[in-house]
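ARCHIVE CARD
SHELF: 3
SLOT: left
DATA:
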Amino acid sequence: MNKRQTRLFAIGSTLVAALAFLGMTIDSHRQFPELTNADSITPAVTRGNDVWHANNCINCHTLFGEGAYYAPDLTKIAQLRGAPYLKAFLREPERFYNEEQHRRLMPNPNLEDPEIDDLIAFLDWVANVDNQGWPPRPILVTGSSIPGTSLTIAQQDISGPGKTENQMPPGARPVSGNESPIALGEALFRTATPACNACHSIAPGVNLAGPTLAGVATRAQQTLDSPSYSGKADSIESYIRESIVSPSAYLHPGEMYSAEGVSFMPTSYAESLTDEQIDQLVQYLASFK
């Protein structure tokens, strides 16, 4: 090309790029109200935002990638934990974490119940913002290690049983219908909404927001044989299913797993999973003898 052609090409390319950028900017602003869940911003959400800032929560936590990294990202915490857990946690965080065991300490913010309700409303709004699938997995921060290994709980949740960190967990790869129900259940354990491994470990003795599921089949039979059991299950499989679809039917011993007779386990799986998927998840969990 001669100089004139080169100049025209440069000017034309710049105009095309500028128009494309302007078009994408306009389209982004067009989608913002829907993507940001703006219609759900209630007075409670606004007050909760004020509580978040007044207590400097961002000094330790992150939202949408903004903030500090001393404590877990809370972008999806309302979906991963649920309102009953968050309310009990914010009232008495020392019940759930302590410096001696977890190498960190969540300070008690000393919030009044209305402030807690508003903060949960704010976090629920944040969790429902369409952020294109980010974060890609639950971000767990803890100092506890798995007995007999050098892995942290967070590493264990990434890798899964018998895998290295360089291998993809079942929830990160395509799962075909030709795989066994247990393999499909293992994938669901990491991909259901909320993901089971956001609250449960499968390593012995490692309790997160929920009790470890290592040996859950054996404990299920022990619970069924116990006179204190008041649910309707009559087998290990039906007990595990009951725990998934009706988690408050039997409350796991330990004050950090329930409050006021209600389990912290989400009650949404009966609607978000099909009967076949629940069966697959049950078969996977029933394999932990």
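SLOT: right
DATA:
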Amino acid sequence: MPVRLAINPLTWTNDDMPELGAETPLETCLAEARLAGFEGVELGNKFPRDAATLRPVLARHGLALASGWHGSRLLERDVEAEMAAAEPHIALLRAMGCTAIVFAEVSRAVHGERATPLSRRPVLGDADWTLLAPRLAEMGRRLAARGLRLAYHHHMGTVIETEAEIDRLMASTGPEVGLLLDTGHLTFAGGDPLAAARRHAARIAHVHCKDVRPAAMAAAKRQDQPFLAAVLDGVFTVPGDGGVDFAPVFATLAAAGYDGWLVVEAEQDPARAHPLTYARMGHDHVAALAAAAFPQ
């Protein structure tokens, strides 16, 4: 099986709401990630950010670093400034052997604003697209020269959230801009992860396997909740515990020759969703489907 399975530490401790899982040490996150069966992890807010310190920490648990999030502000600053801002992160990922960088434009974003409903998230005009797309393309080229593929993360509450916006991003850039397919965020945004995977399979550089609880999603939309309120109410869960059908998505990825990470990610309140229990649930569901979809 060419793909590898990783987990995001959001299962244990939340980056946008640090009080969730604040008491849980990094060692617990890593030990339980390995116990659940994962080969890798993504970065979280408790991770050391220099390779000399991080490498032995992960090695103790037999884990690799899959990637890590960079929130860009290319609507506010040029590529030179963005590259400078991202340099410590780029250096860390390269030193840790990563091949993709999780990349999301966070200018004007509302996903971290606890009182702002998702209906008030930013929407790009034509002038914004004219500015953003060439800058993303140039970032992609520069990152490729550093050995990293830009994996663009569409995300609730940001300027690229919907299926139509993903399509426009892909059409406005070339292969230098890869796509991070996040099944949960796209479902929450009203999109179809399978349709998006089929259209953009050749551009998919990284995958977040996130499930959605349909009832919680419907309530979040009906109540026009802020993103973090929806998270607290359980809109996201691990694969196998929600309404997303992962099997055809994996089959599409396999047919396109995808050979990167499948990352289980489900930001939940760890007081309500026992982290190791859910980590095991997500791992076992993804592992079984991946074994069936991807050639040995």
